[in-house]
Amino acid sequence: MNKSALRLNIKNAICSFGVPVGIYLIMEIISRAVTGAGVINNMADMKNLARTFASLFCIALALSCNLPAGRMDFSLGSQMILAVIFGGNIALSLGIGGIGVLFFSIIFGVIAGFIVGVAFVKTRIIPMILGMGMALIYECISFSAFGSKGLQTFGNNKLAILSDVSFICFVVLLVTLVMGYLFLMSPFGYNRKAIQGNQRIAMNSGINIFSNCVICYTIAGGLVAIAGVFDTVFKGNLAPVLGMASRATVMGNMFAVMLGMTLARFSNSVVGILMAVLSIKILTLGLSKLALDNSIQTIIIYFLFLILMIYRMNESEIKAWKKKKLRIAEAKRIRAKMAE
What we know:
Ribose transport system permease protein; mainly alpha; globular; ABC transporter involved in vitamin B12 uptake, BtuC; 2 domains; membrane
């Protein structure tokens, strides 16, 4: 490895890991200055960070399955609710513990995602419209099942493993490795990148864009099921909803996806989303330590989201302005040298 490549790798590593580290340092300084305590003070803080991190990470990965290809799936939240309610209740009725709840939820999530993918391929309805329709259907199914009680996990000792930090970290690591292989090293991942570039060219080159699309939807369904299990155990219950209320799961995690796509240029899509989710969870935990109202926290987070989107939309102009500034500086330097 030559020096230029080494410098590039070091720069990319600093840019990738520097965002969560920088946010942690900033929030740590602010928190200690205001409250006299740090962002992470005890094991409870670590557990809360791990649980919410696992949920947000899986949802962000699920969104990234389809969003880069121009498919915005609003049904992911309803898929999560359906998968966890059906999978969790069936597992508990069979006397299976936390592993069984996670397994059955993933199965139902995969089925729900597969159905949405097939529906999209067969009907060719605009993804956003299809997602809204499927969300309403899944919400009604979840609401009508099990007496509209959803899933109760509070006080169930059989689910204790789902709250264990070591198990949560193991699941996050496993998801990272599996998704890293699927997105970066598998034929599916190569075809997915080609489709993101240009679907018509990818299709003309022999790639089956429809099967790749169905696989993306299927994987997304399994990922939101994992997220739903950890989120339900953290909150103690999962209640069914109606009227497209499940779409909050999608819109509430767009910041992580967009930040992850921005950081992905320094590493890859999986690591980028991992660093983005870690950054946002540290920021959220730090804001909660300051005892701010939820409304104030939401305003701060979405204001940062707005700044990120403004930057992404004007990134080419910013780069052109920087290059112009460098050319002007170089011209002034040459003119000064010639004047001597």
